[in-house]
Amino acid sequence: MHRDRLDELKNRIGLLDYLSRYDWQPCRRSSGGQVAGLCPLHTETRPSFWIHTRKNLFYCHGCGRGGDLIRLVQLYHHLTFPEAIAHLRRHTTTSLLDDAIAFYRAQLHRPEAIAYLDQRGLHDPATLATLGIGYAPGACLAAHLLDLGYAPDQLRQAGLINPEGRDTLYRRMVFPHGATLYGRSIDPLCRAPHRFLHTGKGGLFGWPWHPSAPQVILVEGFFDVAALWQAGFVHATCGGGTHLNSTQFQQLITGKRTVRIALDADAAGQQAALSLSTRLHQAGQQARRILLPQSHDPASYFAAGASADDFRTLIEQALP
After folding, report:
1. What span, in angstroms and rounded, lies between the C-alpha atoms of 18 and 3?
2. Helix/strand/coil for 199
3. Cβ atoms of 42 and 60 closer than 8 Å
4. Candidate CATH numbers 2.40.110.20, 3.40.50.2300, 3.40.50.410, 3.40.1360.10; the one for domain 207-316
5. Which of 105, 190, 220, 259 is the most buried (most CB within 10 A)?
6. 103-106 LR contacts (CB < 8 Å, sep 24+)
7. What's the pLDDT at 7?
8. What are 167's strand-pairing partners?
9. Res 225: pLDDT
């Protein structure tokens, strides 16, 4: 890796910021821009580990080890030099996505975003905040992230910017989803209304909230999840379509639970629901199919005026 690129990688992430992600806390600070704390590289009871925040260097007077960010990553995670660089690249991408998500969330005040959320029946601020929903207006994401110090190549490699330099999720409502983002176009004439970053759709949406849940509601889309959460059904999740990938199916069959399937009421949705129910039963999992009124999905059902009690009735009437 070229020396300039190495310096850029090291300087982009502060040692103090990096260690704070692993719950390291400084015990005292000096006037010269240095902080001290217990060494993360060996066991000690008196703080001897110092970080020079301006130079982004560290040194431990207890174990005698020191160096830059890459050296710390090597020692802390027991990695080779190339492995440490790869680790930091992943770390930087995570920070980049976090900053993009924060930018998108700050755009929810725009009239077109408010109008679209109103059309979809979403109005609860707590639901929007918990799910991290934002809006990509286009044209200004790149400038914002470049101002934060990211390089153009990083934006392209993360999939946030397309080859033409435009926001990949332009004029879309955005949902954070693990190591990727999902965008739903607000334009009814858009030929590709659903879009993930190039990393693909990954596992089930919001699964870290549900791994041990005794029951979950599986729906097709992200807005279906949001509508159910807003109505109080916070054990809802989705696969980003009618068909689950292997990771998503494995998540459902790991641990004992009842999976209530509430896919769209069209022919494709019902066929997929029956097929999935069969697969879950064969894998030893309990599954029941929630039958929505014709032409509805959960989001449109609530947007049309259905209540939480109405949906509970559908749950009670679910088929095996």
Report:
1. 21
2. coil
3. yes
4. 3.40.1360.10
5. 220
6. 103/134, 103/141, 103/144, 103/145, 104/134, 104/135, 104/136, 104/141, 104/169, 104/174, 105/129, 105/132, 105/133, 105/134, 106/134
7. 74
8. 161
9. 98
- pLDDT tens for 83-123 read 998 888 777 778 889 899 999 999 999 999 999 999 999 99
The reported pLDDT for the residue numbered 80 is 94
Per-residue pLDDT of 59-82, as tens digits, reads 999 999 999 999 999 999 999 998
CATH of domain 95-196: 3.90.980.10
Q: Which amino acid does the sequence have at 263?
A: L
Structure tokens at 177: 């989803």
Task: Write out the two tokens for 277.
Answer: 């129910």
Structure tokens at 213: 């849940």
HEC string for 100-132: HHHHHHCCCCCHHHHHHHHHCCCCCHHHHHHHC
* Structure tokens, 95: 């920070």
- Structure confidence at residue 3 as a pLDDT band (50, 70, 90): low
